[in-house]
Task: structure prediction
Amino acid sequence: MIELAAERQRTLTIYQCRRWDSDYLAIQRVLQQGLLGPAFHIETFIGSYSHPCDYWHSHEPISGGVFYDWGAHYLDWILNLVPDPVVSVRGVEHKRVWHDVTNADQSCVSLRFAGGQEASFIHSDIAAALKPKWYILCERGAIVGQWRYESVKSRRWSGDLIEDRLAPSEALPTLTAFIRDAGDRIHEQQLALPPMPQHAFHRNLANHLHQGEALAIPPEAARRNIVVMEAAKRSAERGGETMSVHC
Result:
C-alpha cells in the first residue's frame, strides 16, 4: 500500500486518533524530559468483568480480534514510547466465559526490544480486579496510571436524579510520577493532563493535503504496529510461542 500510494501520488495515513489522548501525551512529555530516565518496563491494561459489546469489533472474523482493536492503539503508544526495534513478540489468548461472542475473553501481548526493554498489553473482559492502565518503570522513577470511577448525573423528565456510573475506560486515569532524588528518596507527584487537541488527526490530514504539512501518522510507523499485531496473533494460535521479529 505504501508503494502504491507513492506510485499513484496519493496520501496514505492511519487513523491513530489516540495519539492525542491526554494521559499518553502527559507520559510522553515526562519521558522526553528525561527526569525519570529511560523506560525499561511498561505494562498497559484495559478491561473489566463484563459481557463484550455486540458491535462488529467483538466478532473476530470481521475485526481480527482484540489485538487489532484496543491493541492497535495501546501497541502504538508502547512503540512510540520505546523507539528501539522490537525483537520478539508473544501472544496469549483465553476463551473461558463469554462463548456467545468470537473474540477472546482475555488477550495479552508481550514485547521485547533490542535494548532489553520489555512491554505488555492486556485486554480482558474477565478481570474482576483491574490492573492500572499504565505501570511504567524507568531507571530513576516510575509512572502509574490508575483508573478512575466517575458518574454522570442527569434528570428524568419528572425531575428525578439519575446517576450513571461510567466504565473505567470512559474516564481519563490519574497519573502519578514516582521520582528518585539524589538522596535515594522517592517523591510522588501527580501529573497534570494537558487538554486534548480537538480534531487533531483530521486537522493534520487537511493541512497535509492543502498546505504540505508533514503527516502526524506516516504509514511506515503503522507498518511497525501491524508487524507486532500479526506476530502476536500467530503466537497465540501456536499456544503462546515466542515469535522473532525485527521492526
Residues 219-237 form the longest helix (19 residues). The CA atoms of residues 16 and 73 lie 7 Å apart. The mean pLDDT is 93. The first strand starts at residue 39 and ends at 47.
